[in-house]
Amino acid sequence: xxxxxxxxxxxxxxxxxxxxxxxxxxxxxxxxxxxxAATSTGAxxxxxxxxxSAAQSQSSSxxxxxxxxxxxxxxxxxxxxxxxxxxxxxxxxxxxxxxxYGLDLKWDPAGKVxxxxxxxxxxxxxxxxxxxxxxxxxxxxxxxxxxxxxGVVRVGDKLTVNLARQLPADATATVVIVYHxxxxxxxxxxxxxxxxxxxxxxxxxxxxxxxxxxYGAFTWFPCNDQPSDKALYDVTFTVPDGWAGVTGGAFVGRxxxxxxxxxxxxxxxxxxxxxxxLGIDQYKEETATGPHGLPITxxxxxxxxxxxxxxxxxxxxxxSFLEQRFGPYPFPTAGVMFRPEMVGMExxxxxxxxxxxxxxxxxxxxxHQWFGDAVTPTTWSGLWLxxxxxxxxxxxxxxxHGQRGAAGTLDDYMSDHVLPADQALRxxxxxxxxxxxxxxxxTNVYFCPALMLHGLHDALGDKAFYQLLNDWVHQHRDxxxxxxxxxxxxxxxxxxxYGAYIDAWLDxxxxxxxxxxxxxxxxxA
Length: 525
Prior knowledge:
Number of helices: 11
Number of strands: 22
Largest sheet: 7 strands, mixed
Strand content: 25-35%
Strand order of the largest sheet: 5-8-3-2-11-14-13
């Protein structure tokens, strides 16, 4: 998510950015999203699939087969170590591990009604006789069927699927939920003025798009809406002619059926619910090729073409900038879905981005593909693992390209422009490792951990620091991680224990004075 525009002081206010300095414009092939012929940008499976023994365990477990005749072993990469969230425990169910979502969605722009069929392949993360899912109360459930389903209970935004018997841990079941309704936003747990609601937002023109961090996917499909449950996705959108349905992953192609366009998407890598993109509008599609032949797609409204192309001209340079520091782009596809509304969200492989924000905000969202998407926090107390890394990447880009008033060295920028904000952020929003739950995604989880990372950078030097972050991402790709795992990894990778330093920067109510080598008294007096 893009950084909050908190005006702490003139030096650190996140004001409108200067233009980017990209030098390489991608070769593009523009076409209307309403092209009748079926197309394909190429689907490819990502790495990170579990071992064959894990897949066999999934396949042989009780509960039947998912839709299409595949056994659950086909979705082994969607297996997660699900836990209750420690900040927003009212969402998600630690007994429910969704391996795969098959979403078949039909959108009526005139009536603003979504009709959906969600086929969920679910693993019992522990012995259970029910799967508790999140689905906004405004969505009516027309039917719920599947392996051993005995009944359904709706209470508020919870949909509990009761089973005829208790399933043992690792058993799988398929649940098919037919539902319909008009998506509605839910109240965000934040003080940020740029986030008025979470979930699927329906526009006056009948379009719909989503921003759903830390929760809100449940406003448009039944899900286990918490970060520790990553899953695979196949999504089909049926929309009127002239409209397009967009999400992340590989765009399999468009066909026509009864005057409607049918858009199919395949996501080969596990995704947390908050990172699933949604956009249905009168989009045009533009294809491009990024570094190393990376397939990229851009989706935008025709009226925004000029603004969009100012962003897309810089994308190859942005990806290369990040790859030089953090290793190869971690997914088989990339893309950006542009919106006229104020939004910047790192939806996996299909960034959701406003056309009215800074060029470096797109760099920030691309950095999240490494930090937050490839490696996702286990619970929301680990938000700093996303935002601190993406913010530090953005600061590095700003210094390298002279954006947002950056001049001089990275050291200069961090000490003169970022450090002065640290104490005010901790006082206002809490330490980044223990932020106030009602202040989600405030600037404290961006700036304060970025300062911590800069201290590590100074201590290790460029080569070792970038290798550390490269190793962190690529050795933990497609997983969920937490603070303890990061501290242990840093110690193993560098041979030095930086735990006290990291803890001080995440936990202290005052700006720490401790240095990476352990010198200093920790929190400032």
